[in-house]
Amino acid sequence: MAQEAPYRVCFAPKNREEEEEDEKIYKRYEEIVAKLPTTEGWSGHLIYQYQGFWYNSEVLGAAPLVVQRHFKARPSDILVASTHKCGTTWLKSLTFAVMNRKSHPPSAQHHPLHIFNSHDLVPFWEFNLYNNKNNGNRIPNLDILPSPRLFSTHMPYTSLPESVTLSDSRILYICRNPKDNLVSWWHYVNKFRSILSLEPMKVQEAFEWFSKGMSPMGPFWDHVLGYWKGSSERPQNVLFLNYDEMLAEPALHLKKMAEFMGCPFSSMEEEEEVVDQVIKLCSFENLSNLAVNKNGTTYPGVSNSSYFRQGKVGDSANYLTPEMMEQLDRLTEQKLHGSGLTLSICHLS
Ligand code: A3P
User: Fold this and answer.
1) Catalytic residues
2) Confidence class of residue 161 from pLDDT cuts 50, 70 and 90?
3) Which Pfam families does the entry link to (predicted)?
4) How distant is the alpha carbon of residue 116 from its chain centre?
5) Which atom of ligand 1 approaches the CA of 283 most closely?
6) Are 56 and 216 in contact (CB under 8 A)?
7) Does 189 map to a domain?
8) How far is CA 242 from the centre of its chain?
9) 192 vs 26, more confident
């Protein structure tokens, strides 16, 4: 039988009064959401626009707003942040493996990453922890989790809880070139659409949604720029990572991550090849072939295998027309102009 995800300890039963209090809080934020601009989204659900970004109302409800006002950060917290399909699953695995390497050596046969999908080890605020209608605990007691706590989010930087951006907690953000991001999202969306018995979305439609900024928690460029700016202003607190660069030089980036997280690899660990062991443990080849990731599910209806497709740079060229690629390049250039950030894959392909 599948084991319970470890984070579920924070869903200890609440009494009736506490549950009703949670309900009242949600109701307040649901009323705010009801007044926001909405439109039909990419998977047939309504999407709403909050603080400049698009959210799936069916999947998330008012959870992002509740997180924003109710999450209380600790300075020791570590947050894995990203927009959809930028390598979140991978970054969660790497972060978990680095942070827990003393208690769970990466070469161990029974490493938690062999038993759980990384989304079960590094839960999302807005998908896993908050808004759990089923267990009657919609605002979990995260105080009971030991430090350092490890969370994740797809929420944009500018909408993070103030207690995170004003505290010393650390954020690892991963982005990716927009062409591969779009193609990865398009494949993923079509998995959802098939579960919902909807016609598959054509790549042209996905391109149009994405270009208009209407991908999940898009606009993609604003999401990336928010964290980019955060990392320039608070480099000790926000580490900005790029999937494409990480694939090209994993050891370099893993060491940077460990240092940033306050647990650098010692020279002894380097000699013992712990860096390589973490990379191997978290590699696409290893994780995608584990039983838990081939057969398991993390959310009802979402198979863990849907987080693993190709794990390569440049696959978008197999799906996008040259015109779409050019348009996306132009759009990216315009959006990032003056920021000092480039997200091209030309130098890698
Ligand atoms: P592709 O669809 O291009 O293959 P997210 O985790 O944010 O949903 O992103 C999913 C993307 O990351 C997918 O990209 C997926 O294949 C890739 N991915 C998942 N696990 C990976 C790993 N361990 N190493 C590299 N890429 C990985």
Assistant:
1) 154
2) very high
3) Sulfotransfer_1 (PF00685)
4) 16
5) 23
6) yes
7) yes
8) 13
9) 26
151 DSSP β-pair partners? 79
Specify the pLDDT at position 204. Answer: 98
Whether residue 1 lies inside any domain: the answer is no
Q: Work out which ligand 1 atom sits closest to the CA atom of 315.
A: 3
pLDDT at position 54 over 90: yes
Residue 312 CA, ligand 1 centroid: distance in Å: 8
Q: pTM (2 decimals)?
A: 0.97
Question: What φ, ψ does residue 171 adopt, rounded to 5°?
Answer: -120, 125
Within a domain: 335: yes
Q: Which of 93, 246, 308 to mutate to test the pocket of ligand 1 (most atoms within 8 A of CB)?
A: 308
**Following DSSP, what letter does each residue of 69-107 receive, concatenated?**
HH----TT-EEEEE-TTSSHHHHHHHHHHHHTTTTS-TT
CATH value at residue 309: 3.40.50.300
- Any ligand 1 atom below 6 A from CB of 327: no
Average pLDDT over residues 206-227: 98
pLDDT in tens, 59-113: 999 999 999 999 999 999 999 999 999 999 999 999 999 999 999 999 999 999 9
Residue 263 lies in domain: 6-346
Q: Which two tokens stand for residue 82?
A: 């990203």
Q: Decide the pairing of beta strands 150-153 and 170-175.
A: unpaired
| Among protein residues, the one whose CA lies closest to atom 25 of ligand 1 | 311
Q: Measured between alpha carbons, how far is 44 from 278 in angstroms, rounded to an integer?
A: 39
Q: Is 56 helix (H, G, I), strand (E, B) or coil?
A: strand
Q: What is the pLDDT of residue 1?
A: 57
Give the pair of three-digit tokens for residue 175.
Answer: 């982005």
Judged against a pLDDT cut of 60, whether residue 347 lies above it is answered with no
Report the alpha-carbon distance of residue 138 to residue 140 in Å, rounded: 6
Closest ligand 1 atom to residue 184 Cα is: 2
Does residue 108 fall inside a structural domain?
Answer: yes
Give the residue among 89, 252, 92 at the shortest CA–CA distance from 172: 92
Query: How many angstroms does the Cα of residue 310 sit away from the middle of ligand 1?
Result: 7
Number of domains in the chain: 1
